[in-house]
Amino acid sequence: MLAKNIYDVVVIGSGPGGVAAAIAAKQAGADDVLVIERDVEPGGILVQCIHNGFGLTSLKEDLPGPGYAQYYLDQAKALGVEFLLDTMVLDVTSQRKLYLSSQEHGYVDLEARALVMAMGCRERTRAQIRIPGMRPNGVFTAGTAQRWVNVEGWMPGKKFVILGSGDIGMIMARRLTYEGAKVERVLEIQSYLSGLTRNYVQCLQDYDIPLQLNYTIKRIMGKNRVEAIEAVQVDQRWNFVPGTEEIIPCDTLLLSVGLIPENELSRKAGVILDPVTGGPFVDETFQTNVPGVFAAGNVVHVYDLVDWVTEAGFGAGKGAAKFALAQKAAEQRYTPVKAGRNVRYVVPHKLDKQTLEQEEVHLQMRVTKPIEEDVWIEVHGENNSIVRRSERYVRPGEMVTVVLRPAHYAEVCKAGTLTIDIYPKSEA
Question: What topology does CATH give the domain 340-427?
């Protein structure tokens, strides 16, 4: 089991947005900050992004993805941020209660005074863009291929066509060329590039990889493995232009056709999503419509640069810490009141210590069973007795009242919880 069951700030996701949020939360005064990551190592997508280009804005350095991630991970660990790896968040409630599953800890539930959603985004797949044809092996998203080549050391094919001019697709065109594969061309249904111009220049032009705008795939050919694709030009309404069809032999098709903010958990927490971006509606602190639930990075909308994701994470973490500290202050103001031995219930259920400092507070209760002999009515904390008085008897039909006065304030402040017990003097 985890050492704690409640944290000031919990961050879901250890990518650049999540780690930045954890750092900012710690720097803003949050005591207990936990980052939950479903992978076996932190860093998010940056772990597989071994190309340079990260940190130019935020760090004034040109770093590869793992180097950029490690820079901030080192900061987070130095600040005392806790990491829970290889752990899946199964459910989240609007009250910021999380249900987790991990191989090490099993099934766990915990609470957050403030929660930061930093799950990033996912790639659109073939099913979402509805490419006709058989379902052969050899159709992958560009990110999947990137993971295989850069982390697992597997080559998914030898001859490639890439659909979509997103950044990951163009970067993979260059990476596959480095590894000796042939990238026949990149097709883009729009009349313009969907990724960064610098990636077009550095990844396609510099390696003589053709880009065809206003082109898409009419069908995938091959039964067991991709054998070719049929490319076709489209008009302004994305209708096929007859006579422009072309068969391009290949054994692998990579899809780089857009990213979608990963917000299944956000929906479970009651977060309202923007139908345009697919991410939550947020305010200037990145707080969603659900109090205490914040969102950071690509889970809100897809950024061009990782540096900007980090900047957004800092904003969300700072806002989350401020909310969590206000929650903690409110919790410390109140002392829970608990029904103890032979007490059915107590009203009020919690006690405002600031009120007790100025005036009397009446605790009212009923017993679970009659005791027809002298009894003690005792209010106590974990280690201290605050009030104890006697009665000749107690009965369920007759309400019992205990008065706490300002003179009891100091003793109440020592107690984490007030418990009321009613018991026979003979059992004292």
Answer: Immunoglobulin-like (2.60.40)
Which CATH architecture is the domain 6-122+260-332 placed in?
A: 3-Layer(bba) Sandwich (3.50)
CB 59 within 8 A of CB 13: no
Domains 6-122+260-332 and 125-257 agree in fold: yes
Query: What is d(CA 69, CA 44) in angstroms, rounded to the nearest whole number?
Result: 8
Domain ranges of the chain: 6-122+260-332, 125-257, 340-427
Beta strands 400-404 and 361-367 are: antiparallel
Q: Cβ-count burial of 312 within 10 angstroms (0-12 exposed, 13-18 middle, 19+ buried)?
A: buried
Instruction: Let me know the angle formed at the C-alpha of 27 by 16 and 79, rounded to the nearest 5 degrees.
Output: 75
Domain boundaries 125-257, CATH class = alpha beta
Per-residue pLDDT of the chain (428 residues; tens, 9 = 90+): 677 899 999 999 999 999 999 999 999 999 999 999 999 999 999 999 999 999 999 999 999 999 999 999 999 999 999 999 999 999 999 999 999 999 889 999 999 999 999 999 999 999 889 898 889 999 999 999 999 999 999 999 999 999 999 999 999 999 999 999 999 999 999 999 999 999 999 999 999 999 999 999 999 999 999 999 999 999 999 999 999 999 999 999 999 999 999 999 999 999 999 999 999 999 999 999 999 999 999 999 999 899 999 999 999 999 999 999 999 988 889 999 999 999 999 999 999 999 999 999 999 999 999 999 999 999 999 989 999 999 999 999 999 999 999 999 999 999 989 999 999 999 87
